[in-house]
Design a protein that fits this description.
This protein is mainly beta and about 800 residues long. It has four helices and 44 strands.
């Protein structure tokens, strides 16, 4: 099967060939084998829900001291990075290893105008924004604005989406709406993992890591050919642990683990790959992850009005009145079948089944009193099926397919306001919310690239989606302390018949019992059109228009019988310039502009009243953005390479009916920049790779409607050194991250009232001033030693 670049020149005859970055190390001392194994542990899914499509290891040729040819699959076919008319950062295996990138959130450093951060209250919930577009609230029913994919499988929920980066071939960050080929919920862009298939002989790798805050990781992985070059079985296991960056200084419950921001995780995977012929392959993958890291306690930015506990000195210290336990269970299975029907036509079928469960404790007020505590449970199940065809001919290429998604997203949370309840003479006060927001989605898509001349090409794409959402919400007040289940706190027994009345759905006889849930169907047509001009072999200019949408939904916190909100729509225009000026210098520059319509916002009745919990969901705003992104690579010598990335974003509010009103973008700075250097040193003791980078993020707000939680601009310094023996069996790496120990906000909660006559903040929900911050990782150093055979 053919693979192509922009003008359909054949570079390979195997569409199953995956795509890799060829590095200097690949050309020296047989380090191909060693670098591939250096990522040791698990297939990407070992810690990150691996539902992987088969990818071979096609290697692009690279000469020492020259730019490498990087292949990608951003448009579902294999093309060179420099010929793809998409704003795209591709981070290969060598870069991940040499920079010590171990988790998804670290990738934001290398992709302009990108935010990937760990959300509030847990270690594994992702907050993702690209060009200022994403989704802040991780509650069930809300859809993300940046799609996460492991090969061709969509990861639907932010819980558990902070993926560990292990044994991946490359990671692609696609910026701008990807509605045609990737579908709903990619209005900001998409992050795509590409994993490797098993090849070659039996292999086994073991590694151990020790580091700051008592880090101790053990990783084992291996593969065994059952039938040479045809049938393989692979397995992996990891145990990852670390003490907390801080502690819970006070806890209302005895016997709790007081580590805060700790890590306690194990994961396992099993893969079976079968290639009966050169034209047919199967891959069956199973994985399970169990994360028992503690719930994250936030940092009180203001002293509590109801306790005498001071604001902690350490940004990672906290207080709590809830159990510190937290849990994330993730399990999934996938099947990928690829068939080369002819030299020009490939058929692919991908199916997946995933589920997750997470009981979590989030202490919003972060005191030892039960002022505003929110224990919660999240349950998600989804199945996907995709049938895709790729047809390549001289002069044009076509990709099309059918996609089906069936997902159930449910949960319950209890907003426990006991201090307020007792002040009213009750035993306590709980706002209890429970419900489901389920979705069935069907899509038909196609995209083609057509040569209009030797230099000019036209891209046309379209996707038609039909989605039905079904939802119900139980929401009401209970004048007692109520937890999600018996035993949630020591000695607690959940009363029978305590469930609150139904407020979103149909209750025909008025008895408070749900007869049928609310349901609504949306149909969406998502087009794409572009022109690409190949000035010469090394220069490509493109202009494109693309549209994406984020699914319509129902308010998971509804306190009345609300109608569902319509999808968010993003219309985006890009102009790109990609050029290899010499064999040593590459620049990729993108100018973009977009309109973001029908934005979904939770509103309250009074913009200045922070005591309200009743909220409504509306399509309340329209915004626009424009900016540019630049990525530069300079190969200074055979051994030294420099990389730079810069992003700039302007933002404007076009319509502002949100209550409280919008004032800016969430988690998105105006400017981002990264400068990196990589140096290879060859010695008789082995080969060393030195890496250093400086990453800068400008000022940003945590929430789009409040200035109370804001982060000043900051810079971060990271350095690494990798060593590998000449024989390729032993390896080691030392990584220092955030060496200047910058303190930077990545999440928070803002529940305060207005200002009093003296300009002081007044109490918000629960009767206290609740202004809470969560912070990114402090300075850490870790050492990994591994052996392979």
């Amino acid at each position: 099967m053919k693979t192509i670049n922009q003008k359909h020149t054949v570079y390979s005859t195997d569409i199953c060939a995956g795509v890799t970055h060829t590095s200097k190390l690949n050309l020296r001392q047989g380090l191909v084998k060693s670098l591939i194994a250096t990522s040791v542990a698990l297939a990407c899914g070992l810690l990150a829900m691996p539902t992987m499509a088969v990818q071979d290891n096609a290697t692009a040729e690279k000469e020492a001291g020259k730019l490498e040819v990087i292949n990608v699959t951003a448009r579902r076919t294999v093309e060179t990075l420099q010929s793809v008319p998409v704003a795209l950062t591709s981070i290969g295996e060598e870069e991940l290893l040499s920079n010590g990138i171990s988790v998804l959130t670290e990738l934001q450093q290398f992709s302009p105008n990108t935010t990937l951060q760990t959300s509030r209250g847990t270690n594994s919930t992702l907050t993702a924004f690209i060009r200022g577009i994403g989704q802040q609230d991780p509650l069930w029913g809300y859809e993300p604005g940046v799609g996460i994919y492991i090969d061709d499988v969509y990861i639907a929920r932010p819980q558990g989406a902070v993926l560990d980066i292990l044994d991946v071939q490359r990671i692609e960050v696609l910026r701008g709406p990807q509605g045609t080929l990737y579908g709903k919920n990619t209005i900001g862009g998409a992050v795509k993992y590409v994993t490797k298939e098993m090849r070659g002989d039996a292999a086994f790798t073991a590694s151990a890591t020790v580091g700051s805050y008592g880090q101790q990781d053990i990783k084992l992985t291996g593969q065994l050919p059952i039938i040479e070059d045809k049938l393989y079985i692979g397995a992996g296991y990891a145990d990852l642990s670390r003490d907390g960056f801080g502690t819970y200084l006070q806890s209302a419950l005895p016997g709790q683990d007081l580590e805060n921001y700790n890590r306690d995780l194990w994961a396992a995977r099993l893969n079976l790959e079968y290639r009966p012929t050169d034209d047919l392959s199967f891959r069956l993958a199973w994985d399970k992850t169990q994360d028992d890291s503690n719930a994250k306690g936030g940092y009180r930015l203001l002293p509590s009005l109801l306790t005498n506990a001071p604001v902690p000195a350490n940004k990672f210290d906290s207080y709590t009145s809830l159990p510190t336990t937290n849990e994330v269970q993730i399990e999934g299975v996938s099947l990928t079948v690829r068939y080369n029907a002819t030299d020009d036509l490939e058929l692919k079928y991908v199916a997946s089944d995933r589920d997750s469960y997470s009981p979590t404790n989030i202490d919003f007020d972060n005191t030892a009193l039960d002022i505003f505590d929110v224990p919660a449970e999240y349950r998600d199940e989804n199945q996907t099926h995709e049938l895709q065809a790729t047809y390549l001919q001289d002069g044009y290429s076509l990709v099309g397919g059918l996609y089906y998604y069936d997902g159930e997203s449910c949960g319950n949370f209890n907003a426990i306001l006991n201090v307020l309840g007792r002040s009213l003479g009750a035993a306590g006060l709980t706002r209890e919310v429970a419900g489901c927001n389920n979705s069935q989605s069907y899509a038909l898509y196609t995209q083609g690239s057509f040569d209009l001349s030797d230099k000019l090409s036209l891209t046309l794409g379209a996707r038609y989606t039909t989605e039905e959402k079904t939802a119900f919400v139980n929401n009401g007040l209970v004048f007692a302390p109520v937890y999600p289940s018996t035993g949630w706190v020591p000695g607690y027994v959940r009363p029978e018949g305590q469930l609150v009345p139904t407020v979103l759905g149909t209750d025909s006889d008025g008895d408070g019992v749900l007869d049928s849930p609310k349901s609504k169907t949306w149909n969406q047509f998502s087009p794409r059109v572009g022109l690409e001009y190949q000035m010469d072999r090394d220069t490509m200019i493109y202009a494109s228009y693309g549209q994406g949408f984020k699914s319509g939904t129902f308010n998971p916190r509804a306190s009345g019988n609300e109608a569902g909100v319509d999808p968010e729509i993003v219309d985006s225009v890009e102009i790109g310039f990609k050029r290899d000026w010499t064999e040593q210098l590459r620049t990729n520059v993108t100018l973009f502009s977009y309109d973001h319509k029908d934005r979904q916002y939770i509103g309250v009745g009074d913009a200045g009243d922070g005591t309200q919990l009743n909220q409504t969901l509306q399509n309340a705003a329209e915004t626009s953005g424009s900016g540019f992104e630049a990525e530069v690579t300079y190969v200074a010598s055979d051994n030294l390479t420099f990389n730079a990335a810069f992003g700039h974003l302007n933002f404007a509010i076009v319509r502002n009916d949100s209550i409280p009103p919008l004032i800016g973008l969430s988690s998105t700075p105006e400017n981002t920049a990264n400068f990196a250097a990589n140096y290879l040193l060859e010695t008789e003791l082995g080969n060393f790779v030195f890496n250093a980078n400086y990453y800068y993020r400008d000022d940003y707000l945590l929430f789009e409607t409040s200035e109370l939680l804001a982060q000043d601009g900051y810079g971060m310094v990271n350095v690494s050194v990798m060593w590998e023996s000449l024989e390729g069996d032993w390896y080691a790496s030392l990584h220092g991250k955030n060496l200047t120990d910058e303190e930077y906000l990545v999440g928070g909660y803002d529940f305060v009232g207005g200002l009093d006559g003296s300009g002081n903040l007044t109490p918000g929900l629960g009767g206290d001033v609740t202004l809470i911050g969560y912070y990114g990782d402090p300075r850490t150093v870790h050492l990994t030693v591994g052996y392979r055979f």
